[in-house]
Amino acid sequence: MKLHKKLTTASGRPYVENENSQSVGSRGPLLLQDYILHEKMAHFNRERIPERVVHAKGSGAFGTFTVTHDITKYTKAKIFSEIGKETKMLLRFSTVGGEKGSADTERDPRGFAMKFYTEDGNWDLVGNNTPVFFVKDPKKFDDFIHTQKRDPHTNLKSPTMMWDYWSLNPESLHQVLILMSDRGTPYGYRHMNGYGSHTYSMIDAANRRTYVKFHFKTAQGIRNFTNEEAAQMKAHDMDFAQRDLIENIDAGNFPKWDLKIQVMSEEEALSQDYYLNPFDLTKVWPHGDYPLIDVGVVELNQNPHNYFQDIEQAAFAPAHIVDGIGYSPDKMLQGRLLSYPDAHRYRLGTNYEQIPVNRCPFATNNYQRDGQMRVDGNGGENPNYFPNSFDGMEIDSAYQEPPLPIDSPYADWYDRNCEGENDHFTQPGNLFKIMTPEQQLNTINNIIGAMSGIEGPKKAEIVNRQLSHWYRADGRLGAAIADGLGVDVDMEEPE
Ligand code: NDP
Ligand code: HEM
After folding, report:
1. Probe ligand 1: pick from 215, 224, 284, 290, max atoms within 8 Å of CB?
2. What is the largest CA-CA distance in the chain?
3. What is the distance in A from the centroid of ligand 1 to the CA of 261?
4. ipTM > 0.90?
5. What are phi and psi of 261, to 5 degrees?
6. Most buried by CB count within 10 Å: which residue of 16, 159, 221, 352?
7. Ligand 1 centre and the CA of 481: distance in Å?
């Protein structure tokens, strides 16, 4: 049945005409009083909001998280309170470096950002499809990201900038190797894993802390494009991953991920007995030492009805935790805690938490008032200060986390040239060794292809510096890349 609805202005005035502007005579100039024309043009001019400074190109869907295994001995978070419990959630995938209109199949990490609407507040786990990252200190983030964006002079992406930075910052090597493997070009978003990446903490009912890593293993199986396939898909369909996600969910083929965790006791994490820093984002916790523990299943089962409303306006922040889940001393996580809400205030405005997709569906109470686009009742007639004698608002100290025992002087800079901190090579080397011969070959060829783009007067210096890193990770890897680049190296494989 056809619905008969009247076209109106935003203030409700019915249109008498929508395709002809008021004019003096059929060929004459237009009238200033044509408010509808002004309203249409003015709103159109304001349709764009700033795109995310990173992760601008993305896709998302709503879904459900279901608990399958009991982890209440680690956490009192209500989302994990009983087997079978379901929590509504949102997942936004993304590429990192490209603009909002860039291709889905670019070689890039993929964002894996989740918002769980729990009764203790919204919990955001803002991860990637890789367990590690390029840098381990947030002061480096903007410099690193600049190398992934456009050259300020040519306005082109620049392999020279990328490899110059990576070669000068060897802690990137682990993430760069994953990026250069075929996992750097996943077959859409359904066939890749997600990782919380950082070390987080869990707090149990007795207020004890455990450190934890989150892993989301794809139930669809890992599937990647080769370099050539990714390039072909870019020419054929820039929006491959968006199309793949929306079509599968529309068809009832709901993608799933199994949530697993690794846990480390607080005593062990803080004792410095383990050979690596458990809060270093460039390292994984080897599964042999910290096995995966089953927790539950994420299923995406509902496409958003309106992309801009629910996905473009979605605001994820690692700072958004809930009772039973906490931060950690990971320096990168600490930096991100401040960065994301700041970015949201710039991109979406100070009241971004009131946009329906970001709003906590359960009660929120505070004394924040006013600001642009306040639309939630603004606290009504209630007091706007604390403490007061009227509203009976309480602070609940039951939510207090256990104190974190830290006893160190503060300093601008700590020497990281200590054992365990400065080994940027063993884990990338381990990864290369567990790859199949075909994966190794593809990775080597992808690196050769990418490094072949280095140009300019510093080319030899950058290539040699980066080669020495590959060599230190794995002699065979370094030698194969040098060979492919036609560089004559005379290096001993390190012990
Ligand atoms: P394991 O053999 O127990 O684990 C290896 C892991 O590597 C698996 O989780 C596998 O994920 C993943 N993997 C396989 N190929 C690739 C690839 N091309 N890119 C990224 N990940 C891949 O060994 P360890 O735990 O000792 O780790 C060895 C190396 O594996 C690490 O140095 C690290 O580079 C990598 N890795 C380790 C992870 C961890 O949390 N320990 C997580 C991811 C990677 P899948 O099951 O999905 O195939
Ligand atoms: C998006 C900053 C590291 C994953 C963003 C945004 C900023 C940012 C400003 C845009 C937010 C917005 O406008 O909504 C930083 C800083 C980092 C850092 C300062 C380091 C100090 C990381 C790491 C990961 C990550 C380590 C993954 C483990 C993401 C994801 C998004 C994102 C997935 C997109 C979220 C979405 O879908 O809306 N980051 N980031 N970032 N970041 Fe980071």
Report:
1. 284
2. 88
3. 14
4. yes
5. -125, 155
6. 352
7. 22
Supply the DSSP string of 383-424, one letter for each residue.
Answer: --SSS-SSS-----GGGPPPPP-------S-----STTTS--
- Evaluate: CB of 193 within 6 angstroms of ligand 1: yes
- Based on the residue annotation, tell me whether 55 is a catalytic residue of this protein: yes
- Going from the C-alpha of 328 to that of each of 116, 203, 402, 404, the distances in angstroms are 20, 12, 12, 9
Classify domain 22-161+184-362 by CATH architecture. Beta Barrel (2.40)
Selection from 159, 182, 169 nearest residue 451 by Cα: 159
Q: If you measure from the C-alpha of residue 42 to the centroid of ligand 1, how many angstroms do you get, rounded to a whole number?
A: 52
Structure token pair of residue 490: 């005379």
Q: According to the annotation, is 471 in a ligand binding site?
A: no
Q: Is the Cα torsion angle 342, 323, 94, 329 positive or negative in sign? A: positive
In the numeric block, which tokens belong to residue 212? 């934890």
Nearest CA to ligand 2 atom 16: 336
Q: Report the nearest atom of ligand 2 relative to the CA of 113.
A: 33
Q: Report DSSP state, residue 100.
A: T
Residues of the chain falling short of pLDDT 50:
493-495
CA distance 345 to 358: 13
d(CA 378, CA 375): 7
pLDDT of residue 408: 86
Taking the C-alpha atoms of residue 336 and residue 133, their distance in angstroms, rounded to an integer, is 13
- Return the best residue to mutate from 49, 51, 55, 93 for the ligand 2 pocket (most ligand atoms within 8 A of CB): 55
Contacts with 384 (C-beta within 8 Å, 6 or more apart), sequence order: 367, 369
Residue ranges per structural domain of the chain: 22-161+184-362, 426-485
Output the pLDDT for position 267: 94
pTM: 0.97
pLDDT tens-digit profile of 325-338?
999 999 999 999 99
User: Residue holding tokens 């993305």?
Assistant: 58
Check pocket membership of 286 for ligand 1, CB cut-off 6 A: yes
Q: Which residues pair with 294 in a beta bridge?
A: 260
Q: Is the CB of 261 under 6 A from ligand 1?
A: no
Joined together, the tokens standing for residue 353 give 């938490």
Atom of ligand 2 nearest to the CA of 138: 21
pLDDT tens digits, one per residue of 250-278? 999 999 999 999 999 999 998 888 889 99
Does residue 128 carry a catalytic annotation? yes
What pLDDT is recorded for position 416?
65
| CA dist., res. 301 & res. 64, Å (int) | 7
H/E run at residue 259: strand 256-265
Rounded CA gap, 80 and 261, in Å? 12
Q: What is the phi/psi pair of residue 294, to 5°?
A: -70, 140
Cis peptide upstream of residue 29 (ω within 30 degrees of 0)? no
CA–centroid distance, residue 274 to ligand 2 (Å): 29
Distance from Cα 111 to the centre of ligand 2, integer Å:
8
